[in-house]
Amino acid sequence: MANDPDIKRLLWFIFAGSRGGINRLKIISKLIEKPLNTNQLAKELGLDYKAIQHHIRVLEKNNLIIPVGEKYGITYFISTFLEVNMETYKEIENKLDKSK
Description:
The chain is mainly alpha-helical.
C-alpha cells in the first residue's frame, strides 16, 4: 500500500496543491512529535485558533488525524492511515522544505 499513486496524489494536494498546505504540514509535524489539542497547536505554531480549527477539519476529513476525547478536551493524533503512508508524507515534506 505504501507509495500508492492515489495516496501520493491526495497528500500532494493537501500539502502542496491547496492554500494552507504548509500550515497543515506544520500541524502534522507537531502531532508526529506528540498529540496536542487545538489551543496547544495554535500556541506552538503561532497561528490563529480559527485557522487551526479549519486545518484540523481538512486533515480529519482526509483521515490524516484522529480526535480523541470530547469538546475542549479533544486531543489529535496522527491516524493509522498516515502512519502507513509516512514514507510518502516524508518525501513530500522534504521536497517542500527544499523549495523554500
